[in-house]
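Bench notes, bay 3.
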Amino acid sequence: MCHTDHTKSFNLVTFVVLAAGVWRPHFVVEGHGRLIEPPSRATMWRQGYPTPENYDDNQLFCGGVGVQYGENKGKCGVCGDPWNGPREHEAGGKYANGIIVRSYQVGQVIDVSVELTANHKGYFEFRLCPTDNPFERVTHSCLAKYPLKVLPERDVKYYVQGGEGYYGASQKIHLKVQLPRNVKCRACLLQWKYNAGNSWGVDPDGTGCIGCGNQEQFYGCSDIAIGHSDVVLGKPAVKHPWLFQEETDVEWHFGIVKYNNKTTEAPPPSSSPMFYTSNCCVAVMVFHLMALFLSLPAMF
């Protein structure tokens, strides 16, 4: 008759679970947000455009708070790259391929969508820099001249509403944004800027609060044309349904937050760079931990 040591089995399970918890930060990725309509340079590959894959397209946050405000004194690239690092999402960079994704009329009210995988409160801003060359580097000073208004309030800031978003249950925000009535361009850069507001900080006047002072910032850049119907738009080749699922019943609202019960993004295969540790490595790690446990019964 087989006898099972339930105490040892329980301890083994407990040990493995705790060990997995210790190792979890090495292969779990938490996200923040991305500009999905019009698709940004970092995200358009998810919709089938022939551009390099960027699995960190929801983490264009200037290198992080420490890098942005410590090393770079508050500066950031116009598309979310670290100021002192490679500007891979700006002209000349890996993800800036000159593909125009949308064409609009002058002064048109356009649909803009942002997907948050972590709601950090705060507010969105949208800006425009008109050029006729998608390979021309855009500056913050150009973008500052063309802030866009979100309807119906016609405010340049949209304050994020709703609850907490998290990896595995994405939150989409659909907005109506007004384009300028006097701008035509063959290759405008549309910038989304997300000023988060979930951290404690201190304003210049000494006021301290959640959302005060230096906060995380997230960016996205899309290439669009305005007032030029002859511009040739890039076309998606093959869509990846496990990366991006189009909504067929979207109801566009003015500044209204909408939620999805299920994520539109699924984990990629284990070979994907999205994971720092592959499933195979995790399995080997657990095997060795179990062997260690069985060889050291006195410890438990």
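Next record in the batch:
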Amino acid sequence: MSAISAAEKVDGFTRKSVRKAQRQRVQGSSQFAVNSSRPAAPEISALPQLKDASSTEQHALFMQKLQQCCVIFDFYDTVTDLKYKETKRATLSELVDYVSTNRGVLVEPVYPEITTMVCTNIFRTLPPSENPDFDPEEDEPTLEASWPHMQLVYEFFLRFLENPDFQPSTAKRYIDQKFVLQLLELFDSEDPREREFLKTILHRIYGKFLGLRAFIRKQINNLFLRYLYETEHFNGVAEFLEILGSIINGFALPLKAEHKQFLMKILIPLHTAKGLALFHAQLAYCVVQFLEKDPTLTEVVVRGLLKFWPKTCSQKEVMFLGEMEEILDVIEPTQFKKIQEPLFKQISKCVASPHFQVAERALYFWNNEYILSLIEENNAKILPIMFGNLYRISKEHWNPTIVALVYNVLKTLMEMNSKLFDELTASYKSDRQREKKKEQEREELWRKLDELRLQETSAIQNNRHEMQFTYSNKNNNNNKLHDKDENTAAAITDRSESDTWAE
């Protein structure tokens, strides 16, 4: 352990920054554990080009190049093995072109070699984040140092899966459940470039390996549950949801109980996650896809969202309102009737929010033609729910933009049902008058109570003064009597003494 300098002992921040710099200098790539005593990477010799080899030699050369690419280099060490790193990069690039442009190269013996090469290069234990307080919205992600090689490995594997000669029946012996589990864990990588490749590759595997579909869905569910109730951290949630969006789109009708359970137990609770902003667009798309598949799920979904509606986070409220508008865009009129009352009670609260973005987003519902038609059909139910807050905000809200939007909404509602609007206006004004009268009566009652309290206080003080005065008079009388008794006793004493002298 290195000695700590005097400056470091005095300044804790200096010591912390020095330790961080030392840790960064010795930290290896997530792909390679740095060890000062590790053996040097074997030399990689430049092999002949595949395009220059004869057709009989190409297969053996292809296998040899795959084996050669299983050598791993440390990219945090920027000065060693430069020649061999470049040789491997060129070889990987050549393999990508070879698989993309040639037919008949995917014969059975190459499948294990390809999967071995891919597994060796991409599967590794992901390191913990360098920043324990990493915020994906604010902080820059840590990029994979070995990306120059890893990118080409991912591209090669993707071309392998998309090759017309690819045989899932042969590949399933190597791309199995264990392979998929390791692939899913890689979605926690901080590098967005890697997650993008993983998303495409997992989608291809899901499409080609029918036997793995249920397993993939189950394991994604498990990762979601772990994220929700244990770790509260996983970098690949948005990518998983993007894959699931296209999977949901392909579900057959009627929906299985498994799929409905996924909606209610996974997708709806995901709205409570702290990092909702990172994947809300993909989450809302999945929810809407379910409702387009089965409109009868609308009521339970809307009530589920209302149950988890944010209480203290205005940013989340804006997101929830946006998602609710997407749901209303695809809702059927019969389903709308079932949820209109609880939904518009919440919208009314949002309209009355002091946070202008929440109020503004709620008022934008009236700019949507389809939602407006639903409101018009059910104005007898919706207008009484919305009117009170709208009328009050038009007089009291601090933001002039919100006041202008509210006036437009009130005008629209008045045009829908002028008779009901007038009744609600009169009722609102009479209610306000009653409230003012009650307030005045309450103030008058408190005024009288204050007067009574003052009178009682004054009476108590007067009684106290009288008692003090009486007590003082009594003391004075007692003193006078005491003096008189003393004088009488003195006179008797004097007389008795004089009688004694006379005798």
